From TrEMBL:
<dbReference type="Pfam" id="PF13302">
    <property type="entry name" value="Acetyltransf_3"/>
</dbReference>
<dbReference type="InterPro" id="IPR016181">
    <property type="entry name" value="Acyl_CoA_acyltransferase"/>
</dbReference>
<dbReference type="InterPro" id="IPR051531">
    <property type="entry name" value="N-acetyltransferase"/>
</dbReference>
<protein>
    <submittedName>
        <fullName>GNAT family N-acetyltransferase</fullName>
        <ecNumber>2.3.-.-</ecNumber>
    </submittedName>
</protein>
<dbReference type="GO" id="GO:0016746">
    <property type="term" value="F:acyltransferase activity"/>
</dbReference>
<keyword id="KW-0808">Transferase</keyword>
<feature type="domain" description="N-acetyltransferase">
    <location>
        <begin position="16"/>
        <end position="173"/>
    </location>
</feature>
<keyword id="KW-0012">Acyltransferase</keyword>
<dbReference type="InterPro" id="IPR000182">
    <property type="entry name" value="GNAT_dom"/>
</dbReference>
Amino acid sequence: MLDIASAIPVLETERLVLRGPKPADFEPIATFFADEERAWGFGGAIDRPEAWRWFASMIGHWALRGYGFWVITDKADGTPLGITGLWEPEGWPEPKLGWGVFEGAEGRGIAYEAAMAARAHAYDTLGLPALSSNIFPGNGRSIALAERMGPRFEREYDNVKHGRELVYRHPRPEAA
């Protein structure tokens, strides 16, 4: 089996390690995507076979674009806490910074800490010229997190897969 996770950069923060997906991460990711409340911001709940396809696409995105979603883990014990990263499938105008935390990881600043590390990597290491977060209207928690990170609402966008989304533009480091 190809170990693509070892080729994905590892990012560390004060409390977290962001690393490439591993086979054992499928269970918490499938659980996340089976939960309508959590998966809503990713387009809604999906079954295990569709979660497997999403999981595989997480890995493939790294091979195709050189960036993608990391699994957020607790630095102390390695427990998977969520996902964050950069996503730019066919038909999207630019890379998107996204996040989602697993049950029990909410309200602790995990998504903020992880997404800030992913954004810094996008700008400082990858040199991406622009970055946005596309958020479904009504997703108050993600809108609040985006605004806490510094982006501001820029416009509405008709996503080729999900329909209307709100685009929040992330400031470049020198502008923040």
